Amino acid sequence: MSDQESVFDLQPLSWHTPHWQSVAEQREQGRLPHALLLQGAAGVGKGLFARQLARGLLCQNAAGVAACGQCQDCHLSAIGQHPDWHEVTFERTKEGKLSREIRVDQIRALSDSLSLKSHSAGGKVAVIYPAHKMNVNAANSVLKTLEEPSADTFLLLVTDAPSRLLPTIRSRCQSIRFDVPSADQAEQWLASVVADQSPQALLAMSGGAPLLARQAAEEGWLDERETWFEQLLDIARGKLNPVDAAAAAAGMEVAASRVLEWTVSFCSDLIRLVQKVPDSVQNKDHQSTLAALAEHRFANSPQPLYRWCDDLLKAGRYAESASLNAQQLFEDVLLQWQDIQHR
């Protein structure tokens, strides 16, 4: 799961409370649908919620949808051996690389498993993540399962990009939307799990998503982002060749898509500062530097920033493709950044 959490290492997150109350009420009233679409930004805990819910649905002594943690079903879930719990996500290729899509053979294997009799009285649960990464054939296969669900079967589809799912899939699921929590909730939770790093800075670079901010802390993203921003600024100052910077960026441990997200926030902050809305700036630790750049370069001509931001968003979609050439992608982005300094 992208949320980087085990189902067992955290209590339910405080900002999930309304969702737990709603799902529990539906379960108690016999109205819980067989298919749920858990959607929202990355890092807000959708995957964690799905796994905790799966555990509760399989528990024989559950209070609503809260697992008891003591029964045989909970024990099997805890060690990843419950025969009625199925997860479908990226698999590794023969070359050992992680696939960038969920394939039809994975969904067919899931459908075969769901068609079998449950090993216990709690039914069967399948979690598909990230659901929007199913290829066309896989999505069509899931659609057949949604149209003809097996008895006592629950499908939990988890996605950061619901618009990329087939409309017919979305229409057959009950949607639960996970929003970014309030700043107070996010900072309080993050401070409880991360030491010696600023919750505010981590959340700023993670779009306010707490679990993504925790991942940022564990993987050292603050330092990587600092290096990347300095390279962007040095290119603007004429001190760094974009091709050299692209080569360095391609060697980062951080995914190219993540670096592009930071670049979008960098560009968006410049636009906000040109528009005189400093309170909306995300990268507050760089605000004074960005404000000086915005005033010096773009105060009279912000249009190139708008075009660059649009192109960055398009590049971000390409960054998730199987044919990604990261160095070429960064070269295109950085050469454009260099070019707009002189317009």
pLDDT averaged over residues: 91
What portion of the residues fall into strands of 2 or more residues?
A: 5-15%
- What CATH calls the topology of the largest domain is Rossmann fold
Largest sheet: 5 strands, parallel
Helix/strand structural class: alpha/beta
Helix-strand string: HEHHEHEHEHEHHHHHHHHH
Q: How many E strands?
A: 5
Strand order of the largest sheet: 2-3-4-1-5
Q: How many helical stretches? A: 15
Q: For the record, what is the CATH homologous superfamily label of the largest domain?
A: P-loop containing nucleotide triphosphate hydrolases
Could you say which overall geometry the principal axes of the C-alpha atoms support?
A: elongated
- Do you know the CATH architecture of the largest domain? 3-Layer(aba) Sandwich
Describe it.
The chain has 343 residues and is of the alpha/beta class. It folds into 2 domains: 14-179, Rossmann fold, CATH 3.40.50.300; 220-340, Zinc Finger, Delta Prime, domain 3. Helices cover 51% and strands 8% of the residues. The protein has 15 helices and 5 strands. A 5-stranded parallel sheet has the order 2-3-4-1-5, with helices on both faces. The longest helix has 19 residues, at 256-274. Residues 1-8 have low confidence and may be disordered.
Sum this structure up briefly:
The chain is of the alpha/beta class and 343 residues long. The chain contains 15 helices and 5 strands. The protein folds into 2 domains: 14-179, P-loop containing nucleotide triphosphate hydrolases (Rossmann fold, 3-Layer(aba) Sandwich); 220-340, Up-down Bundle (Zinc Finger, Delta Prime, domain 3), CATH 1.20.272.
